[in-house]
Amino acid sequence: MLKLLLQLTKNSLANGPSPNVFNNLKCINCSRSRSFSKKVADHINEGRKRNIRSTLYYVTAAGVVTVGLSYAAVPLYRMFCQAYSYGGTTAIGHDASKVETMSKVQHKPIKIKFNADTAASMRWNFKPQQSELTVCPGETALAFYTAKNPTDTPVIGISTYNVVPFEAGQYFNKIQCFCFEEQLLNPHEQVDMPVFFYIDPEITEDPYMEYVSEITLSYTFFEAKDGLKLPLPPHMKA
């Protein structure tokens, strides 16, 4: 191309200005412009293809992870909350020797209120048999809930629970309860569900619990279905 430009320049100087020179230069510039534009377009198209492939990979991976987590949600939520008493969930297990040796703290009675809820799709009737009990830290107490299946078909339920105020969850110890276990009720069957619990005497040594005189124990029943994801407490969603 350089040789062609030199030759055209010599001819122009020898013979005077010629329209063909300028036409040839325009053609050369147009050809170079089209070639450059085509390379840019090809580069952009290739980048778009790579981005589309990457997006598809990410979406597919996210879908697989979401499906896996939905099936693992119940046991993961149970282990996490019970291990750390999040959302007012009581700590897992209890010290049997402590139950036998702990002393009742008479000067700090605590009123325990009982609440029962069902999810929108749950067809059971569910309620506490008592609205409240007054217990002292260091003594055991027994409460009951009642569940009934009023439908003509068997229904399997599973429950979650929490304690309010949330900070009291670490001191609310359940020796026996029905949470996180599937419960099958046949048509029109009714059952009583016990909750055997105690308040750890150490609650009286916690300065943050000094003015706590009332605790609410709340259960919510859901219909057990594949992929059920139990809800997290409100403060954990942030």
Question: What would you note in describing this structure?
Answer:
This protein is an alpha+beta fold and 238 residues long. The relative contact order is 0.15. The protein is built from 3 helices and 9 strands. The chain has helices at residues 2-15, 19-84, 96-101; strands at residues 110-118, 125-128, 132-135, 140-148, 155-164, 172-176, 183-185, 190-199, 214-223. It comes from Phaedon cochleariae (Mustard beetle). It is a single-pass membrane protein. Its main location: mitochondrion.
Average pLDDT over all residues: 74
Amino-to-carboxy terminus distance: 66 Å
- Alpha-beta content class: alpha+beta
What are the secondary-structure elements, in order, as H or E? Answer: HHHEEEEEEEEE
Estimated radius of gyration: 37 Å
Major beta-sheet overview: 5 strands, mixed
The total beta strand count reads 9
Oligomer type: single chain
Low-confidence stretches: 64-89, 233-238
Proportion of beta-strand residues: 25-35%
Strand order of the largest sheet: 3-1-9-5-7
Pfam family, one: CtaG_Cox11
Subunit structure: Interacts with CNNM4/ACDP4. Interacts with RANBP2.
Membrane topology: Single-pass membrane protein
Function: Exerts its effect at some terminal stage of cytochrome c oxidase synthesis, probably by being involved in the insertion of the copper B into subunit I.
What is the gist of this entry?
The protein has 238 residues and is α+β, with helices and mostly antiparallel strands. The protein is built from three helices and nine strands, in the order αααβββββββββ. It is a single-pass membrane protein.
